UniProtKB/TrEMBL annotation:
Family: Belongs to the peptidase M16 family.
Keyword Mitochondrion: no
A Pfam family this chain is assigned to: Peptidase_M16_C
Organism: Pelomonas lactea
Annotated protein name in UniProt: M16 family metallopeptidase
Chain ranges of the Peptidase M16 C-terminal domain: 215-390, 673-850
Keyword field: Signal
Top-rank taxon: Bacteria
Domain Peptidase M16 N-terminal: 57-194, 525-638
Coiled coil (residue ranges): none
Signal peptide span: 1-25
């Protein structure tokens, strides 16, 4: 139930394509990490202390990378909201970034950018609000300066202007994530049915328009005085620091904050449902959905772990009972998800099934009920329990791989379990439970009379009456500001960075098998985890002209059955390993991705090799996947942002271009797919000389060679390699505005797109730095103007997709319907400004550092390493492009960034795709002189 604000698009987008991956150098021995795996027992080394003002601090010393994660939890969420103030805790999260006494409004995120920060965000769930970023380790003091000012002096800068702006932003977030998102209002209705009036979980996290708009400045101040005090907050520092220095700096920056009164305790009994509650919700959706939801024991209480395992058994993945029954066997469902959503006051066990077109929700419900009853009366098998444990343990281990999520896990244990070192006890819950205990918990808690049964059906969406958006105040009134802590002028000056460690981005090693398969290896000793990706030049770009969607169909078929294993056997093998194996087709490549523990690497890579080299393409599996992809085509029409991208590709590449077609294909092309077409494409394009296996993690080169040679060494392409013609140039449509009608939509999804350069463009670093300033960062010109100044949007971002043979520029985001035209006017002004004159020194240094200094933090997991190197290979770039990246970024100047803007950002070529309420949007577009054309078919 997190409701995070998109405070920045990860600079991963800014590094897409040619500059996908910097990695880290491989030391002789792994540097000491905080996670211990001795004797197979996971533990996190930490130290906890409390300042005299009640501020809790937990230090997690971890020297794997030169990074420090700053994770501040304020122990307040919707559970602490007053009646009539739903959404207040989340609104307060937004206000915390609006500025503080010693860090002026708009400067907070700029400091993070300039320091090379990553993972900067905030989020709110029912029980807490957290604020986090990760900085290079030489910026320890700056990170503490920022966090302390946020907690201690934010209230000094909140006035009616800041409040009104963030009310607009949060209401746009509600429109985007709840009202204009498929099943968004369905989720809200589920919580309304589960919880009675007055319960703090009833309104979910986002709250209502009426309550958000009703918040007044005095409410904000009262909430701050009650909850945003040092004695109601905990900071976790995780990463590369000296504990003695960290303790002294924590005392310096947080020690003078004044404690507040003890926050009032929240005591709410778990609601009890004694008779099934049934409801139907109409939404703008293509596929119907069933939700069955129960109240269950609170987090870490008796029964919580048992029901978590029950969720895995019933619907935790492709090996689960309901997936096998509803998706694979009877083919009634498009997707199945079952989860135990654990919270402090009570948890929710939720079974969610999205139906295939024409399938009966009543029939699905009968089948689900029978499976729940079977689990309640007959214990799960030992194999099912083992699979659930393996998946849970792998997920926990992967969460500790990244210092950002490691810090958050420690903070979670501290608040929710009362012990930051609760990891061992947490996992012990699962190790100790028996199949009979799982069955007993299901019988006790998941009775039909104790649940909410909700059917979501296609139809007209019914929303609460419109709440007007008041005009934005131009200035604050006198006396609006107050303080909880005395001003400390010494805090006005940002602390200087310590001496930085050399920014060393290690090159990966590669070798080639005799059959032509390239193997790229980035060793990362430490945590026993491994990730791999087999990337092939077998994407949409090589689709036959008369078979759009075939490349993606082939990729989707691979995990669905080989000549030696059925789809069910593949799923069960992966679940037993606690590993994942996915396959998907992209624009220029297809990828099969594996992740798991080192102990699962041999069997996991064997599965990857088997599905790639020995696909079955069995007729029943083809028909099943065909039905899934036809349903996905229908689902695509539900989502305005996806629809804008699909139509945008048609507009940019032009009729007949391989990349203009919908990657899923068309109904006709999907219906026409058969085994011969699939096998023909696989034989032509799934060849070792057109592939690379990228592996990162706790494997030496010798260990990797010993795994790869037997599995892939005998792979040979079938027949002569086909001659693949180069992609034709993009042929954009002549029209410059396309409007897709979505009647009643509360927002307009925009995709402002144009052809762009490929990965081989020589000034790519200047291009990336320029785009960071324009729209790539949270602090960019476009997002700042449309979100922070005007309050039109939850977030709008720009980016370049740089491929081997294709490129595209796009500005994407959703804006309030009534300001669609005004938002486009502002976008064009920012583009014109970017092309008109060079950036000033301060802006250049900030956005350039945001690219350069953040490199280690952007690639701190095996998945990120593998994904980046796979993208680098797919884009046709040498491995040296990685190690040259820091020097290229450092060489960017204002002049080179301006030149890149003038060469690669032509407003005359930009095509506007708008997906929204035509009756309200078209007049705005016509007033701009941009008469819309009829929409292109997606």
């Amino acid at each position: 139930m997190n409701a995070p604000a998109p405070r920045r698009l990860a600079v991963l987008l800014a590094l897409a394509g040619a500059l996908s991956l910097p990695a880290w150098s491989t030391p002789v021995a792994p540097p000491e990490g905080a996670v211990s795996t001795a004797a197979g027992q996971l533990a996190i080394r930490h130290e906890k202390f409390t300042l005299p003002n009640g501020f809790e601090v937990i230090l997690v010393e971890d020297h794997r990378l030169p990074l420090v994660a700053f994770n501040l939890w304020v122990h307040a969420g919707p559970r602490n909201e007053a009646k009539g103030q739903t959404g207040f805790a989340h609104l307060f999260e937004h206000l915390m970034f609006a500025g503080s006494r010693h860090v002026p409004r708009g400067e907070y995120d700029k400091h993070v950018d300039a320091a090379g920060g990553t993972d900067a965000n905030g989020s709110t769930n029912f029980d807490r609000t957290n604020y986090f970023f990760t900085l290079p380790s030489n910026q320890l003091e700056k990170g503490l300066w920022l966090k302390a000012d946020m907690l201690g002096w934010m209230i000094d800068e909140v006035d009616s202007v800041a409040l009104a702006n963030q009310q607009d932003v949060v209401r746009n977030e509600r429109r985007q994530t709840t009202e204009n998102q498929p099943y968004g209002i369905v989720e809200e209705a589920k919580y309304h049915a589960l919880y009675p009036e007055g319960h703090p979980y009833r309104a979910a996290v986002i709250g209502s328009h009426a309550d958000i708009q009703s918040i007044r400045l005095q409410d904000v101040k009262a909430f701050a005085r009650t909850y945003y005090r040092p004695n109601n907050a905990t900071l976790v520092l995780a990463g590369d620091f000296d504990p003695r220095q960290a303790k002294a700096l924590v005392q310096k920056y947080f020690g003078t904050l004044k404690a507040g009164p003890k926050p009032p305790e929240v005591k709410v009994a778990m609601p009890e449902i004694t008779q099934e509650r049934r409801l139907v919700v109409r939404d703008r959706i293509e596929l119907s959905r069933l939700n069955l939801a129960w109240h269950t024991p609170a987090m870490y209480q008796a029964g919580d772990a048992e029901l978590d395992v029950a969720a895995h058994v019933l619907g935790g993945g492709k090996a689960s009972r309901l997936y096998g029954l509803l998706v694979r066997d009877k083919q009634l469902a498009q997707s199945v998800h079952v989860g135990q959503d654990s919270q402090s006051l009570s948890s929710v066990f939720d079974i969610e099934v999205v139906a295939r077109p024409g399938a009966s929700l009543d029939e699905i419900e009968r089948l689900v009920d029978a499976e729940v009853e079977r689990l309640a009366t007959t214990p799960p098998t030992d194999a099912e329990i083992a699979q659930a444990r393996a998946v849970i343990e792998t997920q926990v281990l992967q969460r500790m791989e990244k210092v950002t999520s490691l810090a958050d896990l420690v903070n979670h244990y501290n608040q929710m379990a009362g012990d930051p070192g609760y990891l061992g006890q947490d996992l012990a819950r699962y190790a100790a439970l028996s199949p009979a205990a799982v069955s007993a918990a299901v019988a006790q808690w998941l009775g039909k009379n104790r649940r909410v049964a909700l059917q979501a059906l296609p139809g007209e969406q019914v929303l609460a009456p419109e709440v007007p958006t008041p005009p934005m105040p131009t200035k604050a009134a006198k006396g609006e500001r107050e303080a909880m802590n005395a001003a400390e002028p010494w805090r006005n000056k940002p602390p200087a960075a310590a001496k930085a460690q050399p920014l060393v981005l290690p090159a990966a090693q590669s070798f080639t098998l005799a059959n032509g398969l390239t193997v790229i290896h980035s060793p990362k000793p430490g945590l026993p985890l491994v990730s791999a990706s087999l990337v092939l030049r077998a994407g949409q770009a090589v689709n036959p002209a008369d078979k759009p969607g075939l490349a993606g169909f082939v990729a989707a078929m691979l995990p669905e059955g080989s000549t030696t294993r059925s789809a069910q056997q593949i799923a069960e093998s992966l679940a037993a390993l606690g590993a994942t194996l996915t396959a998907q087709g992209g624009a220029e490549d297809a990828r099969l991705d594996f992740s798991g523990r080192k102990a699962a690497a041999r069997d996991g890579l064997a599965l990857l090799a088997d599905v790639t080299l020995n696909p079955a393409f069995a007729a029943p599996d083809i028909e099943r996947v065909k039905a899934q992809r036809l349903a996905a085509l229908a689902q695509q029409r539900e989502q305005a942002d996806l629809l804008a991208s699909v139509v945008g590709n048609r507009a940019v590449y032009g009729e007949g271009h391989p990349l203009a077609a919908n990657a899923l294909g068309t109904e006709a092309s999907l219906q026409a797919v058969d085994a011969a077409a699939l096998r023909g494409f696989w034989q032509a394009h799934y060849r070792p000389e057109r592939a690379a296996l990228v592996v990162a993690g706790d494997l030496t080169e010798a260990e990797l060679r010993a795994l790869v040679e037997p599995l892939f060494g005998a792979w040979q392409g079938q027949g002569a390699a086909p001659v693949v013609a180069p992609l034709p140039p993009a042929r954009p449509i002549a029209a410059r505005t396309v409007l897709v009608d979505k009647p009643g939509a509360p927002q307009t999804a925009l995709a402002v797109v144009a052809p762009g350069p490929t990965a081989a463009v020589p000034d790519v670093a200047s291009l990336k730095v320029m785009n960071a300033a324009l729209g790539g960062l949270f602090t960019s010109r476009i997002n700042n103007q449309l979100r922070e100044v005007k309050g039109y949007t939850y977030g709008v971002y720009s980016g370049y997709t740089l491929g081997r043979e294709r490129g595209q520029f796009g500005i994407r985001g959703s804006v309030r319907t009534d300001v669609t035209g005004a938002a486009l006017v502002d976008m064009w002004k920012e583009i014109a400004g970017m092309r008109a004159k060079p950036m000033g020194a301060a802006e250049l240094n900030r956005v350039r550092n945001a690219q350069l200094l953040s490199l280690p933090g952007l690639f701190d997991t095996n998945v990120a390493v593998v994904g980046g190197y796979a993208g680098n290979w797919s884009a046709g770039q040498p491995l040296s492009a990685v190690t040259e990246l820091p020097a290229k970024y450092a060489a960017v100047t204002s002049a080179s960034a301006l030149k890149a803007a003038q060469q690669h950002l032509d407003p005359a070529r930009l095509i506007v795709i708008a997906v929204g309420d035509q009756a309200k949007v078209q007049p705005q577009l016509e007033a701009l002189g941009r008469r819309p054309v009829a929409p292109l078919a997606p």
